[in-house]
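User: Um, any thoughts?
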Amino acid sequence: MTKVLILYSSIDGHTKKIVETIKENLDSKNIISLSTINNAPENIENFDKILIASSIRYWKILPVARKFVQENHQILNTKKTAFVNINLTARKTWKDTPETNAYTKKFLLKTPLKPKLTWVFAWKLDYSLYGPLDTLMIKLIMKITWWPTKTPEPIEYTNWEKVKEFARDFDTL
C-alpha cells in the first residue's frame, strides 16, 4: 500500500474541489490523507507520495504554499512529489502546461522544490466570490484579454478530464 498525502491551499474552494476529484480517481489501494497546507501533518516524511496544490492570488502562488515548500523542500525532493497549480490563465489552452504557464514557471524557478510531476489546471470564475478590488482587477484582466467580464453564472474553466488524467499519472509515479 502506498501512503499518499494531498495538501492544498485555496481561497474560494475550487482547489479543494480539484484535489477531491484527484483523490477519488487514485487507486483505491492507496492510503490517502487529504488536508489543507495549514493543517499538514508534521510527519510528511512517512508518506510515499505527496501532492501540493495551490491556487494563485495577486500573481503568485498562495503564501502558505510557498512557505510550506520552502520549509520542507528537502523532504519533498526525496519523495515522489507532485505540484499542481490552479489559475485563471490556464483557461487558455496555450497557457495550461507547466512549460507555458507563467505563474507555474516562475514559482518553480524561484523555489527549491523539484517535483517529479507538475500540472496546471484552470479554475472557476465566479465574480460573486470576490471583493470589490479583486472583482475589478479580474474584470480588467478579462477585458484586456477579450474574455467575459459579466456573467450571470460562474464559468467553469477546469478541464475535469485533465484532472483525471493527472490522477492516473500521479498514481504511476
